[in-house]
Amino acid sequence: MTSEQDADLIVVGGGPAGVMAGLLFARAGCEVRIFEKHADFFRDFRGDTVHPSTMEILDQLGMLERFLQRPHNKVDKAELRLAGREWTIGDLSHLHTPAPFIAMMPQWEFLDFLRVEAKAFPAFTSRWRRRSKALLRSRAGWLASD
């Protein structure tokens, strides 16, 4: 058992939802610890797309400009060639949002971006190689069962 007495919140899992939750709670002043079982973000993920709605939230948080400085490709429309004819089957360029496109970015890059942004808040800490099966709250604080 490992004690994390000073944490208001422990997030188990450093995926997009976990790191974003940690960032938002730390931004609000909560002492946050993220437990991630891996040593880093460099592994194969399910998705490498950041959608306009996510980038709109990043803009609202004042982070979009820094996010777009990370390596990415922009996809603002999808086209299909069928029977010798070109068809546009999706066009994001008309959206009224700060980033009307999909950012093609490896998920490890996006997670690292969120982690760096979260580290700006003293209340945020990430713990690597930390596998947890259960969390218990005692009078001494939070206890993580490895």
Q: What does this 3D model show about the protein?
A:
With 146 residues, the protein is an alpha+beta fold. The protein folds into two domains: 1-42 and 107-146, FAD/NAD(P)-binding domain (3-Layer(bba) Sandwich); 49-105, no CATH class. Helix content is 26%, strand content 33%. It is built from four helices and eleven strands. It has helices spanning 16-27, 52-60, 64-67, 107-119, and strands at residues 2-4, 9-12, 32-36, 49-50, 73-75, 77-82, 85-91, 102-104, 124-128, 134-138, 141-145. A three-stranded antiparallel sheet has the order 1-11-10, with no helix packed on it. The protein has a three-stranded parallel sheet with strand order 2-3-9, covered by helices on one side. A hairpin with a 2-residue loop joins β6 (77-82) and β7 (85-91). The longest helix has 13 residues, at 107-119. It is elongated, with a radius of gyration of 19 Å. The relative contact order is 0.27. The model has no long low-confidence stretch (mean pLDDT 82).
Write the SSE topology.
Elements: E1 2-4, E2 9-12, H1 16-27, E3 32-36, E4 49-50, H2 52-60, H3 64-67, E5 73-75, E6 77-82, E7 85-91, E8 102-104, H4 107-119, E9 124-128, E10 134-138, E11 141-145
Parallel strand pairs: 2-3, 3-9
Antiparallel strand pairs: 1-11, 4-8, 5-8, 6-7, 10-11
Helix pairs in contact: 1-4
